[in-house]
Each structure stands twice: as structure tokens, then as C-alpha cells.
Amino acid sequence: MRILRVTPWIYPDTKGGGDYHVHAMSRDQAAMGHDVTVLTTREDDSLPRVEETHGHTIYRVDPGVTLLGNDVSPAVARFLWHADREGFDVMHAHSHCYFVTNLAALKRRLGDIPLAITNHGLYTQNAPERLFTLYLKTVGRWTFNQADVVFCYTDVDKERVRDLGVSSRIEVVANGIDTERFTPEGPKSELIDAEGPVVLFVGRFTDGKRPWLAVEAFAEVLDEYPNAELYLCGEGGLREELETQVSELGIGEPVTFLGHVPYDEMPKVYRSGDVLVLPSRAEGVPRTVLEAMASGTRTVTSQLEQIEDIVDAGGRTVESTSDGALTGAIVESLDETVTDGGQGVRSHRWRSTVEKTTAYLESIVY
User: Fold this and answer.
1) Separation CA 115–CA 91 (nearest Å)
2) How far apart are CA 114 and CA 278, in angstroms?
3) Is residue 19 part of a domain?
4) Helices assigned H by DSSP within 136-254
């Protein structure tokens, strides 16, 4: 099967969970014997335009104009316009939130190549919620409706997409992780040197992730656990503001910015932590939460309907991230002993994600 994967970004060019999902899916489908080409945009001019890596091909084109974190790229449109000549059997676009997926939907409307779209999370973290709600009810719904199949991580997300008026076939494929790599057993990270409890934040420093809430809550956690430490793993435009916040709160000594941590190091990082905090405004089913839980680390997240059942197996969701609720959930988690041992996410195996996705792609091709 010749697969054209359409995505705004791919790991390791960028470091998000969705970007790694695209990379790993392409790598593993290539290992299964499929011919995989990834069409993406190139933010860094030093990256090659065409690259053969991990058994698949990456085509990087100019991003064009960026609006609200979204690349509006004429070069993507040109590539898709001529995609029929390349003999692709199927297009697989990642996230309805991006212009590249809108273009893939337009190509499906005008051509014969079947299209699958993976919903990595219904709402974007880059645009105001009210504006994006309008998008979902118009262009977003139209984009979903051009797909031959839409993949959702959970039944909850499937119903949310259906409630938009989407009539396309929808299949639930859980977002999987490598449960052989992320386990409670194994070495801890030398990056974390702490004698007291360790609180982790793992993610981009963006408005949607709301890392400042994790910092704010941690400052209050110190009242209960004076020897606690906070480690922030990630990069992003809010780094300077977060450093200023830490300084103003007077908590510089117990807070460490690790920057981007290589993926191979993350199992050790999770094992070194006691609680992962993710107070996001919007998410799909975040890999960070699944990876932390599989590693035996408790999690505290904002209350998001699609992950509530998952988190409850090894942590807490917080309806309000203000008035001390986030702090209270962290303290309560630090007071407890982990008993789940990662069992709550054993149904989220990456191998199953790849196999089911591939089977559904084949079903719309043959």
C-alpha cells in the first residue's frame, strides 16, 4: 500500500506528541512493508527537502504564511494537486485543525485518492475557543465529511465529532504508547537530582498547555512539601515568561527547566517523578499522560471528558484549575502510594494502534 501522510510537522523536526505519533506510525508501517511518504512543512531551512529515513520518505516544503500557529502553504497545495501522478493508494492526514488537512480534504473532493483523518484532539491550543468553535461548525465539519474514515482516540471523541454533524465513517483507535519502554521498572534519570518529591510538567510551553498553572500550583505545594522540586520538560514561546514567574514567586531553587529531553530519556524521567501535572485547556489523549501512568507516575490533569476515565485509573482530574484545586490534587497525589503500576494503560499499546490504523486504511483502499 502506498501511503501519503499529510501533516504540518513531524518528529524530530518538532517535539510534540502528535509529531512523534506521525513519525512512529510512518516508521512502523514502513517496517510492515508499506511504501510511506510524509508531506510536511519545513520550518528550519537547514533540514533537507527530501529525506529517506526509518524506511520512509519525507518531503518538506515551504510553510508559506503562518496564522495562529497554522502554516498556510501553497507548496502543500501544489504537491497534493499532482499526487495522482505518484500512484498513492491512500492519503492519511493528521488533525483537522490544520490547513494542510483542509487541502487534503479538497484533494479528496476533487480526486480519487481515499482519505483518512486522525482526530488528535477536537480543539486546537493555538486559537481562541469561540473562534475555533465557529471553524468546527463550518470548515472543520466539511473537512471531516470529505474523509472516507475518521480515526478518534475514544468513544467520547467519536460522539463529539458526530455531534458536529459529521456523517463520515468513524473508527475508534486508541492512542498507544510503547508499554515495553515505559514501565515502572528500570533506571532513573541523571537529569533529576532531588531528595524530596518530584513534580513534572512535560509539554510545549504554549497557551493551550497552561504551564504557568503548574508553576503557580507548585509554589503552594511547597507549603506542604518544602523539599519538593519541579522539573519542566519542554520548549516554547512562554519560556521567558515562565522564568520570570518563577523568579517573582521566589521559587528559583526548587524549579529546573530541562528544555527538550530526548525521547529515549523520557522513561527514566517519568520513573524519577512522583506526579505529572498537565493543566491543559484542550487535549486529545496526551501521550505524556499515558507514558507517565505506564511508568508508575501519578497524574493530575485538567478535567477533560475524553481522558477522565483513563486518568482516574492512576491519578486525578481537576474541574477547576484555580482556588487551590490543582495544588490540592498534587498534594493528595504526593500523599499516596502508587498501586496501579502502569496497568491502567495496558490497553493503549502502540503496536495495536499501528495494526488497527493500517487495517482501516486498507479497508478504504481495497
Assistant:
1) 5
2) 36
3) yes
4) 141-145, 155-163, 211-224, 239-249
All cell numbers assigned to 63: 510553510
Cβ atoms of 304 and 280 within 8 Å: the answer is yes
Query: Which residue type occupies 236?
Result: G
Average pLDDT of each block of 10 consecutive residues along the chain (366 residues)?
96 89 97 98 92 97 85 93 94 95 97 96 81 93 98 94 97 93 95 96 93 96 97 95 97 96 95 96 88 94 83 82 88 77 70 97 96
Whether residue 140 sits in one domain with residue 60:
yes
Task: Report which DSSP code applies to 197.
Answer: -
Q: Are residues 356 and 337 in the same domain?
A: no
**CA 101/CA 106 separation, integer angstroms:** 9
| Listed residue (66, 309, 301) closest to 174, CA to CA | 309
Neighbours of 49 (CB within 10 A): 11
Residues 162 and 214 grouped into a single domain: no
Cα 165 to Cα 361: distance, rounded to the nearest angstrom: 23
Three cell numbers written together for 195: 531528595
Q: What is the structure's pLDDT at 344? A: 61
Q: Which domain holds residue 118?
A: 2-176+349-365
Co-location of 55 and 163 in the same domain: yes
| 92 found inside a domain | yes
Indicate if 273 and 131 belong to the same structural domain. no
